[in-house]
Amino acid sequence: MRFNGNFTQQEPIPEDGIAAATAVMQHGRLHRYNTRDGEAGETAQLEAEFAAFTGARHALAVTSGGYALGTALRALEVKPGEPVLTNAFTLAPVPGAIAALGARPVFVEITEALVIDLDDLAAKAATSGARVLMLSHMRGHQPDMAALMQVAEAAGLTVVEDCAHTMGGSSGGVVSGRHGTIACYSTQTYKHLNSGEGGFLITDDPDIAARATLLSGSYMLYARHGAGPDTAVFEPHRDHTPNVSGRMDNLRAAILRPQLRLLPERVARWAALHDAMEDGLRHANSIHLIQRDPGLVRVGSSFQFAMPERRAEWIADFVSRCAARGVELKWFGAPRAAGFTSTHHHWAYAGSASLPRTDRVLAGLIDMRLPLTFSTGDCEIISTIILEEAASA
User: Fold this and answer.
1) Where are the alpha helices (DSSP H) in 129-201?
2) For residue range 166-187, what is the model confidence (pLDDT) as tens digits?
3) CATH class of the region 263-390
4) For residues 300 and 275, what is the distance between their CA atoms, to the nearest angstrom?
5) Global confidence as pTM
6) Does domain 15-258 have CATH number 3.40.640.10?
């Protein structure tokens, strides 16, 4: 048996998104501020719709999720050399955003459930002197957010949520991104909305929103935003905030607006794929499924399982054998970064850290994309191949 699907094939852009993008190209006003009198523009309308979708007061559309993360830190006035806490299970843009400011990532251990260790968070908040936690909801896994916010408040931490993998999800009935002071999202092709590259920053704080908008390169045209603060809020910030241009354009916004309306239905379809993978692998002796919080609505666009009893050489061979049968797996225990998979050992720019529990968890962690072009029948074939190869000596 071999699987013949494509792990990187996305669904087509909706027809109304194609039509809207074509209209933008026909009139040529791609820049978000190049609008006619009385015309809102696609980007401003998208911001208003994303703010309404998340329940945030303010939303800013930008060029990427990574840019949103860096802008969040700049809007919080993080300084060079300043420590910033982040969970060690994340992707390179998170420590990258911290290091790009000259700030210092301080990694926090994770648990077997792939979420931040709250005891280690409290300890490192006390010893590091950090005032910001950049919390990555990596691969859709979220901690008990009520408990985390209690730790953060006790330690005086401002929480920035990296929601690149949780757009459309929730924790404890609260939309992902609405616990912290700022949340950042991505619309890169492999995320939950697809514009190739793109992202959002949301917040309820008008001063943070104003600084973020100025940072994105507003050219003092901030009144043209769809979910920005009142223009008076910008006055104390406008002459003191540098332009670090990263605006979304109207073409990408036109592609995204119809997809945002489809997101709840997409989340339900991802849940079905994720459930199918769990059902297929549930009784394998050598495979450990990741514990799921019953209060979490997880966006299952990827699937993880652990093989903690297996040695590194065996796992490397297992991944190769699955690939030969058309199943593309990623391994977080690999010695070198590969594609979209890396760990704190691969980020020399972030400094070294002793993280024994995280290393133990990641050593046997396997990861796989679940694009919506797959069916539950595809998941049955994939899980069968994984089971057969996992049973090999």
Assistant:
1) 145-155
2) 999 999 999 999 999 999 999 9
3) alpha beta
4) 9
5) 0.96
6) yes
